[in-house]
Fold this protein.
Amino acid sequence: MGVGGTLEYISGLMSRGHNKHKRKKQLQTVELKVRMDCEGCELKVKKTLSSLSGVKSVDINRKQQKVTVTGYVEANKVLKKAKSTGKKAELWPYVPYSLVAQPYAVHAYDKKAPPGYVRNVEQPPINGTVTRYEDPYITIFSDENPNACSIM
């Protein structure tokens, strides 16, 4: 810790007291999927989210139904404020398909996802058991199979 850091720490202790050490919020980006049909919906959502304290910018992509809020905010508060507009809102559920191991699996593939995106699904935890898939065609011609093909 340098001289500047030490002075800042001491002044912080004196101004707030020793027990009340409040942490600053981190600058973060919150992405939401909000159902918007027209320009009026877009303006209503933008105005509502801009009124939150700590919001630096609100970007809206109506074609993708995506709202990006940047600022010193918490994701759950932004989501709650977006839902207060009466629009259906959720945290952005999509990730680029290159980040998913099996992008066309049943739970990941979504027809409504923007191009290049799939639904963000959690991978099941890998436990110590391994399930083997045995190809049925290998056992057809096996010497150990009494019903094996007699041509061989």
Notes: The beta strands are 28-34, 55-61, 66-71, 89-91, 94-96, 117-119.
